[in-house]
Write a structure and sequence with these properties.
Elements: H1 3-17, H2 24-40, H3 45-59, H4 62-65, H5 70-86, E1 101-106, H6 113-126, E2 131-135, H7 141-153, E3 158-159, H8 167-181, E4 185-189, H9 198-211, E5 215-221, H10 226-239, E6 243-247, H11 256-265, E7 269-273, E8 281-283, H12 286-293, H13 299-309, H14 312-324, H15 329-342, H16 345-350, H17 364-379, H18 383-387, H19 394-404, H20 408-429
Parallel strand pairs: 1-4, 1-5, 2-3, 2-4, 5-6, 6-7
Antiparallel strand pairs: 7-8
């Protein structure tokens, strides 16, 4: 997400930080590079112009240029102006008043609308709500089947009809069932097109008039760049949007749409789709995204993911084992599986302050393959070998390698790295940091 922009801005500010005192020329040179970075990241030129004007006005103030840390002051200004462009504060879904509340999901075909409807339902369910999904995309039977399948898989009821019913009739009947089932959120997956046309818009106007939604959310593919802004403007002018969901943010290394769309349309971004998994939907926090863009990480999102993924009792038991030095390969396997629930290694590293540069060294497939390889080797060991790796001799290594489809060298490497982890955990529990952390699992840390 925004990897290219982060790398370029980090390079600009690193250079600025080495100068000590700054002149007006230094600031202008840095802002020219920032301007190029933003335009190359596909940020709308109107957004770039206003953003840089505000940054320059504040950066050339005497309190900045005379500061002992002028580069840090400029980064602070850039961060604050990024947050302002992105909307200032997180925008939540409308508070529940009349029940059921309705979220109308609209968008072009291929924007990820159907899967986003399910993700939103799962998100609301985790918050203690009772969602009902409505299959109102009558033009595409595959969308109805997909919604029913994903709803069943995630234990969320789906309302659908056969026999050529209109989308408005389906929505009307769904509202009645929602009241009977005491659902408090109805999420309507509407019809999309490959382009915006009059028939599509009129159908959405009719549905909106009938269901009186609390939210009209446009799902828009972030990978289409400036076209995402144009699509949002057209939908907003025709039906009136209350929020945006940017999908496929994990696939767009430039990400200019995220920086442009809120400013140009005036419609708040409410969620980001950050992957294919059903829980890969993040509440949009402008300050957190700005922090990620500037390479400063996003610890709050990382902590929230950890709280969701990790079993608290297991965490306490693990802490006790680490303190006593009893941490073994069985525990390592359990922790790897817990971490895997939080997302890809690249995404996690991206959220850690000071580690954003490492994200480019951690392609999703590399991290995933390495973790699966380690898991296969551990699962090929006996329980006794996992508990006490010291007993693994040459014969056992060969057997483990055959069983996991790896080599004896791979098994050796795992055992050596595990010993390093044991040393690291002992050092940390004593309040010390080891002088050399090296690499973990063949993934470069520099």
């Amino acid at each position: 997400m925004l990897e290219v922009l982060t790398q370029k801005l980090t390079a600009v500010f690193d250079k600025l930080g080495r100068k000590g005192k700054l002149s007006e020329g230094d600031v202008d040179d840095a802002l020219r590079q920032v301007r190029l970075a933003l335009l190359e990241a596909d940020v709308n030129f109107r957004v770039v112009k206003q953003f840089l004007t505000k940054v320059r006005e504040r950066a050339l103030g005497s309190e900045v240029l005379r500061s002992l840390t002028p580069a840090q002051q400029i980064i602070k200004i850039v961060n604050e102006e990024l947050i302002a462009i992105l909307g200032g504060e997180a925008s939540r879904l409308a508070s529940l008043t009349g029940l059921p509340a309705v979220a109308l999901l609209v968008g072009l075909q291929g924007s990820g609308k159907t899967i986003t409807a399910v993700k939103l339902a799962v998100h609301l369910k985790h918050q203690g709500q009772r969602p009902l999904l409505v299959a109102a995309d009558t033009r595409r039977p595959a969308a109805i089947e997909q919604l029913k399948l994903l709803g069943e898989r995630n234990d969320i009821p789906v309302y659908s009809e056969d026999g050529g019913a209109t989308a408005t009739a389906i929505c009307q009947h769904a509202l009645k069932q929602a009241r009977e089932k005491e659902a408090n959120w109805v999420i309507v997956d509407t019809q999309g097109r490959l382009h915006i046309d009059e028939a599509l818009m009129q159908e959405l106007v009719d549905i909106k008039s009938l269901v009186q939604p609390s939210e009209v959310l446009l799902t828009v593919d972030a990978m289409i760049g400036q076209d995402a802004v144009r699509v949002a403007e057209e939908f907003h002018s025709r039906i009136g949007l209350t929020g945006l969901i940017l999908t496929k943010m994990d696939g767009d290394a430039r990400g200019g749409a995220a920086l442009s769309i809120r400013f140009v349309t005036g419609v708040p971004i409410k969620y980001l789709g950050t992957g294919e998994k059903i829980d890969a939907l993040e509440v949009f926090h402008p300050d957190r995204l700005a922090s990620r863009i500037l390479g400063m990480g996003d610890m709050l999102t990382l902590i929230e993911r950890a709280e969701t993924a990790f079993d608290q009792q297991q965490a306490k038991n693990l802490e006790g084992k680490m303190r006593s030095g009893d941490f073994d390969l069985e525990d390592l396997l359990g922790q790897m599986r817990q971490i895997h629930k939080m997302g890809s290694l690249g995404r996690l590293v991206e959220m850690m302050p000071g580690f954003s540069k490492l994200a480019s060294h951690l392609p999703d497939d590399q991290g995933e393959k390495q973790l699966k390889k380690i898991e296969a080797m551990i699962l090929s060991m006996t329980y006794e070998e996992r508990r006490n790796p010291a007993i693994i001799d040459g014969k056992r290594r060969s057997r483990i390698a055959r069983g996991s489809g790896t080599t004896s060298k791979d098994v050796n490497q795992l055992l050596n790295q595990f010993r390093e982890i044991q040393k690291l955990t002992k050092s940390l529990t004593r309040g010390k940091l080891p002088k050399k952390m090296g690499t973990m699992f063949d993934i470069p840390l520099r």
